[in-house]
């Protein structure tokens, strides 16, 4: 059993290794070959072209980030449960089993419906706004 | 399972969905209440929320009585649920808590001068009722859950809702502190529970409790099953607040708003005890409670010690408390102890002692006693907290027993119900609490745990001191100006007065002349658990 | 070869888990935990539990990790705020407790024979069906596969599946009530408190708060 555990993943591992090598080589090459003429402006941290917002990253952030993060996780978790449903409905369920198919559909509709009510509630409670 | 053919039929009868209705109604009403609160607007009268959730609870109670009570406890829905009268009685106790507590806070956001905004307390009412109902849904699922996945999802549903409820008054530091402590320790205990469940699954290959009860575990798997069972019991003993796992109880009860404390003390305890009996039934029958020691499994001796510690610890802790919520926290721990006596009596049947038949009778008595006790406890606690909620308006906290001084002069009816409910908690004859205790202790005697019962009796004698002290403060002392006890009745608050009235009347009714329908339901419930 | 991989990943997980509890810098601890979570995901792939592996990476490696990092960001404890090192007696006790738990679990697990509960390997059947060109039968429902998981989840476990929505609704309402900034209800209150008359009323009514 153990012997066959990872056999299908040799290609994936090879790709990972190649990515790693390319990344390291590219960085090393630019470090060795590239000319270096540092100026004060060039050495500033790069924040997507915007000027530096705060001098230290070690400051307390608003609790609002947390609200957004936890709402994201809740809805993320709900969506994950839809993947296996989608994966199995096409070929895994007998197309003639009308009762079974309607129960499965109802189940997921109910699931998504409650999710929608939750979203509506969060929206109305202004949980999605940044003010 | 044929790997190649597509799935072609359901693994259960579609009609089984009927049994889900009592779980679905509170969830549905929870959502309705959340949305309704948005449209009611801020600072408006929140009575419609209380009425809506009350209606939801009423429908749920009817559905549970009609659908669960006739069921035999046979597994339905592919084995995830096992509805029976046992679940129906536990559901009634839980719904008593949700309804009465919900009603008693109906007017909390209204101030007397009509400004409409409660400055002292910023409880979000929609969320309060919504979370109460979501938690109720999880609790009901827990009482009839027949496999450990359902059980865990249910216990997490109620836990998450109650963690949030504890911190609902988030502008108060103590509320946040209580919620934080409860949450961290609760998450820890959930990990114990989950780990135990996975070990038990590894040892037995089943998640279903009914299958577990019929599984003969091989000796080589027994250590794994025993460790799993132990971890599950630790997780559940935490939820009911048994002593060595009780540290969170006083802080969470004190920090939470009184409304939430009342709900926690009823719903969480009832659901956790109902679930614990069901799980222990599976554990004991498959031998995961350990080898026999003097005629009963090692597990029941461990529970014996936990019960003794809890009875002593709860009552000793309550003696010195001045804050009503902390006092009720320790009182709740003490009641956990009495209920653990029933659990000990229940586990004696799993040993191989000489008088197996007697042990089965004792187990039957223990299950029936548990159910009746839970009803009585739910009513009494609902009464006490309904009175406290009724007094706590416009941000006047009842934070000290002295705040209740002279209540009998200013609000005689509230004081009377409070006294009745406290006497019921103490187990005075004529109240429901007396019959509950009698039943539980009789089971303890029948199973041979006379020592434990004597200890519990002595402890309840001690408990009279702190329960009667409140009665004395209410009746013998003069009201102090500026306290909750000094303010007179507010005729507008009919919702909370109704809740108080119902709790008082039912406590007396169950104690003096318990209706046959209830007794039959209780006995049927025990029958479903002990065959 | 694969046994070697399992051992390698297992060792990585253990080292990362140890670093999670020993690192003093919370960010380093969180990153070590990320490695441990990823390693567990790799083991799940090895056991052909692809859906679980995906969940592990998406939810634990992604979402839960975000929460950890956010908590660290929200608190940003400086070195002097981390508090004193726990006394060595406490650490010793913790180590003894951890070792005892390891021993109990090890002895519980090691006495098991691991031949049961293994579903018959259906790979051969599936390969035969594919060789015959049976296109319709593309689902590989071996034990623990995504399809198998789906079959169990949506039929046998329909009740807990729907109950999860209640759990998430409770969590959503809890998040809003706990983490949402004081909304206009409290803003109204603040406005009222700004006026002298109302502030007196507020201090009378809200003194206990």
Could you characterize the architecture of this molecule?
- The complex is a heterotrimer of chains A (131), B (531) and C (209).
- Chain A has 131 residues and is mainly alpha-helical.
- Chain A is 58% helix and 0% strand.
- Chain A is built from four helices and no strands.
- Chain A starts with 9 loop residues before the first helix and ends in a 7-residue tail after the last helix.
- Chain B is mainly alpha-helical.
- Chain B has one domain.
- Chain B has a two-stranded antiparallel sheet.
- Chain C is an all-alpha fold.
- Among the domains of chain C are: 75 residues, NADH-ubiquinone/plastoquinone oxidoreductase chain 6, subunit NuoJ (Four Helix Bundle (Hemerythrin (Met), subunit A)), CATH 1.20.120.1200; 38 residues.
- The C terminus of chain C is likely disordered.
Summarize the structure.
The complex is a heterotrimer of chains A (131), B (531) and C (209). With 531 residues, chain B is an all-alpha fold.
- Largest sheet features of chain A: none
The computed structural class of chain B is mainly alpha
Q: How much helicity do the residues of chain A have? A: 55-70%
Number of domains of chain A: 1
Question: What brief labels describe this structure?
Answer:
heterotrimer, A: 131 residues, mainly alpha, Methane Monooxygenase Hydroxylase, Chain G, domain 1, 4 helices, 0% strand, flat, C: 209 residues, Four Helix Bundle (Hemerythrin (Met), subunit A), extended
Could you outline the blueprint of secondary structure elements for this entry?
The complex is a heterotrimer of chains A (131), B (531) and C (209).
Chain A: H1 10-33, H2 64-80, H3 82-89, H4 98-124
Chain B: H1 21-40, H2 47-68, H3 85-104, H4 125-144, H5 148-166, H6 173-204, H7 209-213, H8 222-240, H9 248-255, H10 258-286, E1 292-293, E2 296-297, H11 298-319, H12 324-347, H13 356-391, H14 407-410, H15 412-426, H16 432-446, H17 450-476, H18 494-512, H19 516-529
Antiparallel strand pairs in B: 1-2
Chain C: H1 2-22, H2 26-46, H3 50-75, H4 88-110, H5 123-131, H6 146-156, H7 158-179, H8 184-194, H9 196-205
Helix pairs in contact in C: 1-2, 2-3
